[in-house]
Specification:
The protein has 329 residues and is an all-alpha fold. The protein contains 6 helices and 2 strands; from the N terminus they run αααααββα. Among the domains are: 158 residues, Helix Hairpins (Orthogonal Bundle); 55 residues, no CATH class. The chain is rod-shaped, with a radius of gyration of 63 Å.
């Protein structure tokens, strides 16, 4: 029994130590889980913020592209006007440029001038033959078609039309228009630069948030792994703790059973015949069958033990004993 008690004490000591360690591991697991949740929340917040910054960058980039495109339109108009100026100056000097690089303004002015010249000849030249007049009318239709093609290009580029008959005045008008288009181009480019200056720090913030999101995600994964490791250790140790608890429970049940059996044996040993239900039942069965039953004995005057038998015999012997005791009196 002492050996069993010592074994139980050892098991209880081990159980107490393991339960304390279980509590520490459980706290560590919960701490890692809390850190993982915190890292996940911060990571998600960083991702949402980065998404917002990225959307703002996209909007600003689209805005800047539109401004740059507008600046290019002004630049194209300026270059076209400057080309017209060079061609008018060349005309003024008596040299004509018939190459494909001729500006649409000069092409339109020449076409309009040729149309007016042909129309005036048809209206005033009475010496024209029918064949010649038909040829000029055919050419006039071609020139009118060409004029109609050039006008939209000039209007699209916001280039003023000029009168080649007054070259000095046309050159001045063209230069003023070219200066205006150049100024508008510079304004649009300046606006685009301002937008870009707004965008640049957003790129830095976006990159920072991306890096922060990656760092927080790595921390989340690390903490989850630590929590999983702690949980695995917890499960393993809990299994051992349950084994010890089962062993202690089994020992306790065995001790209780031993005590109960011992108490039962003591009670049975101390119980008289009148308290023994099994004996009473057995005697009752024997009496019902007519058998004699010995209950015990009395010591007679001569020191010999006399036993009582069944109910009838008992009565006879009692009468004899009574007579004997009466004679002595």
């Amino acid at each position: 029994m002492e050996h069993d008690d010592k074994g139980s004490d050892d098991l209880r000591t081990r159980l107490h130590a393991m339960e304390s360690k279980l509590s520490r591991i459980r706290s560590q697991r919960d701490s890692h889980n809390d850190s993982a949740r915190s890292a996940a929340d911060q990571r998600n917040s960083a991702h949402e913020k980065r998404k917002e910054v990225h959307e703002t960058i996209s909007e600003k980039m689209d805005e800047q592209k539109k401004v740059r495109a507008q600046a290019k339109l002004h630049q194209a108009s300026r270059d076209e006007i400057q080309q017209s100026i060079r061609e008018v100056i060349a005309r003024k000097k008596g040299t004509r440029d018939q190459g494909p690089g001729k500006s649409v303004v000069i092409q339109l002015s020449e076409t309009v001038g040729e149309i007016e010249r042909i129309e005036d000849r048809i209206m005033t030249d009475g010496a024209l033959t029918l064949e010649k007049e038909n040829s000029m009318i055919k050419k006039l239709r071609s020139l009118i078609s060409r004029r109609d093609e050039l006008i939209p290009h000039v209007e699209q580029q916001r280039i003023i039309s000029i009168d080649l008959s007054d070259m000095d005045e046309s050159i001045q008008r063209l230069r003023a228009e070219a200066d205006n288009e150049h100024k508008l181009m510079l304004e649009q480019n300046s606006l685009a630069d301002e937008i870009w200056n707004e965008i640049k720090p957003m790129f830095e913030e976006r990159d920072f948030l991306r890096g922060e999101g990656d760092r927080l995600h790595a921390l989340f994964v690390h903490e989850r792994e630590k929590a999983d490791e702690a949980h695995a250790s917890l499960v393993e140790m809990l299994s051992k703790v349950n084994e010890i608890r089962d062993e202690l429970r089994s020992q306790h049940e065995q001790r209780e059973k031993m005590v109960q059996n011992h108490n039962k044996s003591v009670r049975q040993a101390l119980r008289g015949p009148d308290q023994n239900e099994e004996l009473a039942d057995s005697l009752a069965d024997m009496l019902l069958e007519g058998n004699s039953v010995t209950f015990g004995g009395l010591v007679s005057s001569d020191g010999e033990s006399q036993q009582f038998e069944g109910k009838t015999a008992s009565k006879r012997k009692s009468r004899r004993l009574g007579t004997s005791r009466g004679g002595k009196r």
